[in-house]
Amino acid sequence: MTRVSEQTSAQQLPAVPFYCPFPPVRHPAVDTFNQVTVEWMLQQRLDTDEHQIERLAVCDFGGLTASTMPYGQVEPLTLMSKFHAVLFSLDDSVCDESGATADLLAQETSRIMRALEAPASRSPGDSPHTSALRALRTDLERLASPKQVRRWTDAMRVYTSGVVWEASWRRSPELPTLDDYVTLWMRSIGMAPSTAMIEIVGGFSVPDRDMEDPRVRALTEITWTLVSWDNDLYSRNKELQRADDNLNLIDVLCREHDCDPSRALVRAVAMRDRVMVLFERLSDQVTKEAHTPLRRYVEGLAQFVRGHLDWASACPRYRVPSGPGATPGGWWKQHPADDSAEPLPIPGIAWWWDQLEPAH
């Protein structure tokens, strides 16, 4: 398994402020979402370890849902909150901290995908996570069109393939290249099925031709990446303490550039801010000419980036008693560290910048 060196492990990094130009919004039913989700999660018995159950119960799934999707109706938002609970439990108890191999995860995720593709095909050997996701998939049919259910199922396939890829690296003594890590993490973070829920929760439908527009596909991938990098920036200290591994943007940059974590942190923030600026510019271009469903989808992507940060800033899950914390008012900053319109030197994502209209 990939392990941090003693020197790296000892270096807890300071909390960094985030640049995000979108305003915060929160759904008023946040407490309802959380209460219903925690009760449902306990009924599903996703975890048997009492300490893990206690950790999940204070993750504030309702707050994450209410902050990332404040525009939706209560029923689909409640389903979304439950979905967050399953993915967090799956991430902690099966993917990150159990030492699962890629082989075992390939088996588990294949069973999950079969349950989502054909929810009527029940198996007596279903894991609690498979059973819970099957139930959510069945509920989704009442709230979404067949096209939207297909998009969500395809997005789950993106996520589960990423989880297996991630597991293969967690068992390796090496770290992936930066290019591989960026692609891996945008998939395994679970954002693909989350963004597929935006139109379902919002009660609108985006035409296929709009979803397949390269600019929209770029904006969608940018959202996955921003959330994954933001997670790396605020969760690294927690991951070092609990999982003792360094499959993290900071440590991949240490390897890539042969530098220490503090210098890698500066690089990571600059990379993240340049991508945030790209999202801002590209979304402005797309929404100027977009019909209402597409405009609402792009606005939903922006809200997810902002809402995820609002939730993380207060979530007990990421607090490390021995680690540095953000100073009061220090979670946000007004200006990006890097506002260049030049592509990052990462081949797998450089095409995003090609979607920008030339500056006049």
Looking at this protein, list some descriptive labels:
1% strand; globular; 360 residues; mainly alpha; two-stranded parallel ribbon
Explain what you see.
- With 360 residues, the protein is mainly alpha-helical.
- Helices cover 64% and strands 1% of the residues.
- The chain has helices at residues 6-9, 30-44, 50-57, 61-68, 74-96, 102-117, 128-143, 146-170, 178-188, 191-196, 198-202, 208-211, 214-242, 249-257, 261-289, 292-312, and strands at 18-19, 332-333.
- The chain has a two-stranded parallel sheet.
- 45% of the residues are buried.
Spatial strand sequence of the major β-sheet: 1-2
Classify the secondary structure makeup into a structural class.
mainly alpha
The oligomeric state of the chains shown is single chain
Indicate the radius of gyration in whole angstroms: 19 Å
Distance between the termini: 50 Å
- What is the global morphology? globular
Largest sheet, strands/sense/barrel: 2 strands, parallel
Query: pLDDT under 50 segments (min length 5)?
Result: 1-10
Strand tally, please? Answer: 2
Give the percentage of residues in beta strands. under 5%
Count up the helices.
16
Q: What series of H and E elements makes up the topology?
A: HEHHHHHHHHHHHHHHHE
Mean pLDDT: 90
Helix content: 55-70%
